[in-house]
Amino acid sequence: MAIVYGLACFTPYISPASFWLMGFLGLAFPVLLILVLVTALVWLFVNRKTGIALLALVCVGYKNISVLFAWNNPQKFSVVKPAGTVRILSWNVKGFDTQEYYRDSANSVRHTMLRYIAAQDADILCLQDFTEYDNPRLPSNIGYITDTLHYPYHYFADDYKMYPAWGPAYWGIVLFSRFPFSHTQKVAYPGKSLPESIILADISIGNKSKRLVMTHLQSMHLRQAMQKEKEAWDNSEDNDIVYSNNLFKKLQYFMPYHALQSELVKKQIAESPHPVIFSADMNEVPTSFAYHNIKGNMKDAFLAKGIGFGRTYSKISPTLRIDYLMVSPTIEVTQYKKDDIYMSDHYPHVMDVKW
Questions:
Q1: Using CA atoms, how far apart are residues 73 and 10, in angstroms rounded to an integer?
Q2: Alpha-carbon gap, residue 189 to 102, rounded angstroms
Q3: N or C terminus: which one in the chain shows less Cβ crowding within 10 Å?
Q4: Whole domain around residue 200: which residue ranges?
């Protein structure tokens, strides 16, 4: 157990692309940490030297431990934004519900989610798994958010087109803003036929500019595991993995790719001419190589202002924080919240920053 935990302490430094086992050790780190701590406490009464040695081993994982849990005093999130701050909402919206259950009524999942977004009074929306249907009979998500919710500026990375039974749909990540963009750019990941991408967008308020960097690392397609056959329109090169029921196989396949994607994200952040506001669904936990590689010296909004494990994915495990809001060291996060609402399989989170 001590050897396995010791290896897991090195997940921030060793890429799963080089050694695939490190991805699994990152996922297992919270459980390993608890096991070593409990065992150390027991051994303090059995053999003091062994117990102390195990406690010393726990400290080797300080880098993972420091991002696993937030210790801040709980504070009520103020709906009213102080002067000089900008509010950013980030959410994997899961296509605003799938079209099988899509009813454009006041009580539909889609409208419930849109009402939640409107109530947050955010200045910038960073949405992953966003869908826009290419069908005049279906309501436009972009049209509703720009016109009804009053976000006149948007940049949509329509990464790929799907052909489900209810009509063609564009899928990807999107930024909506109440402020105009002075620069926008889409950076595609190499490899894989259906990846999402990186969005870069500069916003200037007064004489201060910030660069928004947003992405969605490769989806592991956990939902498709329940499907017996692939969709007729889906010709992705990963079909054998995507439609597999073998969770181990999926994790082994996609976690090394996340590590490679993180290198490109890191490069875009390093080359930014302005301080960075970063939003992502990484599909990776904080104890992963991809998280540490991207984070670098940036501030994680949850660690700065949140409390607990900060779970953002509603299924499988209570330790799955896989969605992130981060900022450059020069940017101050004034408040942060995460709402455990069950409309998507991800929870939305919001932060205010001083501009």
A1: 30
A2: 31
A3: N
A4: 85-354
Predicted confidence band of residue 254 (pLDDT cuts 50, 70, 90): confident
Number of folded domains that form the chain:
2
pLDDT of residue 75: 85
Q: What percent of the chain clears pLDDT 90, i.e. is strictly above it?
A: 69
Q: Which amino acid is at 202?
A: D
Q: And the tokens for 89?
A: 């909402």
pLDDT tens across 235-245, in order? 455 555 555 66
* Domain at 342, CATH number: 3.60.10.10
119 and 176 in one domain? yes
- Which pTM was predicted? 0.90
Other CB atoms within a 10 A radius of the CB of residue 206 amount to 7
Q: Are the C-beta atoms of 350 and 121 separated by less than 8 Å?
A: no
131 and 259 housed in the same domain: yes
Strands 208-216 and 276-281: parallel
- Between CA 58 and CA 41 the distance in angstroms is 12
Question: Residue 335: pLDDT band by 50, 70, 90 thresholds?
Answer: very high
- For residues 199 and 57, membership in a common domain is answered with no
- Please indicate, yes or no, whether residues 8 and 118 belong to a single structural domain of this protein: no
- pLDDT at position 107, please? 80
The reply to whether 239 and 105 lie within a common domain is yes
Inside any domain, residue 238: yes
Does some domain include residue 129? yes
